[in-house]
Amino acid sequence: MDALKSSILLALLAAAAVAAPVDSETPISILSRSEDGPNPDGSYAWSFETANGIKAEEQGQPKKVDNAEDSSLAVQGSFSYKSEDGTPISLSYTADENGFQPRGDHLPVAPEIPPAILRALEWIAAHPEEDNLRK
Q1: Nearest-5° angle of CA 3, CA 46, CA 56?
Q2: Domain that holds residue 45
Q3: Report field, pTM of the whole predicted structure over 0.70
Q4: Structural domain tally of the chain?
Q5: How large is the average pLDDT for residues 78-97?
Q6: Calpha distance 71→123 (Å, rounded)
Q7: pLDDT (tens digit per residue) in 9-59
Q8: 111 is a domain residue
Q9: Is 116 among the domain residues?
Q10: Is residue 32 part of a domain?
Q11: How many Å apart are CA 131 and CA 21, to the nearest integer?
Q12: Does the record bear Signal in its keywords (predicted)?
């Protein structure tokens, strides 16, 4: 259930941050919205679009994890809006037993592992017996 709460909170915070009206007298219209659930099987879906171009959607369903007695929640969703300078921002995500996994062109990317370090890591993985030499 934590993945669900985290993903909903993230989507709502992002939408609220971008949707904040310039003046408090002008509300932002919701052009469309839909909600389905929670259903008896634990699944749900929701989406909305606002007059200032914010779009968000999410769906979730229970998922059995290996031999666990309980199921976890598998969530997929996305949201998009334009930044203050007009740059389109789009983020999609999944949240499940592996945690929250966002994807978007605006997110930072880790640098590549240098080839020498990659070879060293491969050698270490191929020679586990070397780990016990100093014990």
Answers
A1: 85
A2: 2-105
A3: no
A4: 1
A5: 91
A6: 38
A7: 555 555 555 555 556 678 889 899 999 989 998 899 999 999 988 999 999
A8: no
A9: no
A10: yes
A11: 59
A12: yes
Residue type, 134: R
CB within 8 A of 90, min separation 6: which ones?
A: 78, 79, 80, 104, 105, 106
User: Position 14: which residue type?
Assistant: A
Cis peptide before 38 (omega within 30 of 0): yes
| Residues 94, 77: Cα–Cα separation, whole Å | 7
SS (H, E, C) the chain: CHHHHHHHHHHHHHHHHHHCCCCCCCCCCEEEEEEECCCCCCCEEEEEEECCCCEEEEEEEEEECCCCCCEEEEEEEEEEEECCCCCEEEEEEEEECCEEEEECCCCCCCCCCCHHHHHHHHHHHHCHHHHHCCC
Contact of 79 with 12, CB cutoff 8 Å? no
